[in-house]
Amino acid sequence: MSASSEVTPLIPPMRWLLYVAAFLVFLAGLVLFVFTLQTDEFFAWTVNPPMTAVFLGAAYWSAAGLEVTGARSASWESARLAVWPVFVFTTLTLGVTLLHLDRFHLSPDAAPTAQIATWAWLAIYAMVPVAMVVISWRQVRSRRPVPKSITAGRPVLPPALRVLLVGIAGVLLLYGVALLAVPIPAATWWPWPLSELTARAIGAWLIGLGWAAAQGQKSGDLRTVRPVALTSVAFVILQAVALLRYGGALTWASAQATGFVTVLLAIGVAGGWALALSRSPAAGAGIT
What is the rounded distance in angstroms from the CA atom of residue 283 to the CA atom of residue 161? Predict the structure, then answer.
């Protein structure tokens, strides 16, 4: 990296925002992944089939890991790989929520716990993107230059890994946009049935994950890519558990199921590879 590079300590408000966000997505994941068949009572909307609920729950739980890892980072350069994907995802999910508000548990006939979950959902998705913009602005203003000796010699991702991450990012971003824009036609390429709401909800997640992959490869720095690497590994492990529980929803001989598993394996390989490299002595020698 050049002499003009900057290393910025993570400011306390950003650290606490990431911790709070991690707690909130952990709760969402808990309902979806553990109380899969009770989303009509405990979640903001009723999620069917169960495979959709556990898929989303796995995504939320893996995101909790991303945000905790980002919050524990010493520098903004590492933590921002947790911030921007979350900002993109929460903003898109707010739009999906407003577009399908009629599907949410706002009716007096809904279970009281579901109504509480819905109002909490609306408040969270309205406030978190705004808080991220405001605190990120403060964070960026706190940047300070450091001598070249501090930033020189940082290990970069191998070209093959960067190419793999670019490929993953391209697939996730393109398909995520398709699910958001034309959910019903795009859902025919998903390995189990989706409604307009669940297609768009998954689309928002795919764009967030794709953004993380694209941003991770662009950093070219093993230390700053660690949050994304950890999240990728956790995401694949949790999705494997989800498939063991409700994989019967998939037609395993189909092209859709093959594509789904292939992408999961690619994410797992990329995440495991980056994680192994980020924990190597060469990467750890200069952790900020």
Answer: 16
